[in-house]
Design goal:
single chain, seven-stranded mixed beta sheet, four-stranded antiparallel beta sheet
């Protein structure tokens, strides 16, 4: 069992930055691929970025490539998402999740946080 808790969401102006954190507790954090997803009302949850167990390989959705950076600190059981150049279309509830496989599919992520809201004003 893994418990995940996101923090760092909030309101930011277009072009601004936010940093999200996701703290994990429970089983060994480094065993899991970690992903950040986002969801807006009426839309499916979509992957934003994921990072492999030791941070050596990352993946980004095309919509955030070059603006967002995912990282992890296994000693602190935490995964981060640094978001730069935020645009109104980035506004969503952001979720971190843990998976045993490297996947972009929400169905492959067994553990989820409760989400944190990101609002971007234009």
């Amino acid at each position: 069992q893994v418990q995940l808790a996101e923090s760092g969401g909030g309101l930011v102006q277009a072009g601004g930055s936010l940093s999200l954190s996701c703290a994990a507790s429970g089983r060994t954090f480094s065993e899991y691929v970690m992903g950040w997803f986002r969801q807006t009302p009426g839309k499916e949850r979509e992957i934003v970025a994921r990072i492999l167990r030791f941070g050596t390989v990352t993946y980004y959705a095309d919509s955030v490539k070059g603006r967002f950076t995912i990282s992890r600190n296994n000693a602190k059981n935490t995964v981060y998402l640094k978001m730069n150049g935020l645009q109104p279309e980035d506004a969503a509830s952001y979720y971190c999740a843990a998976s045993s496989t490297s996947s972009s599919n929400t169905r492959d992520y067994k553990y989820w946080g409760q989400g944190t809201q990101v609002t971007v004003s234009s």
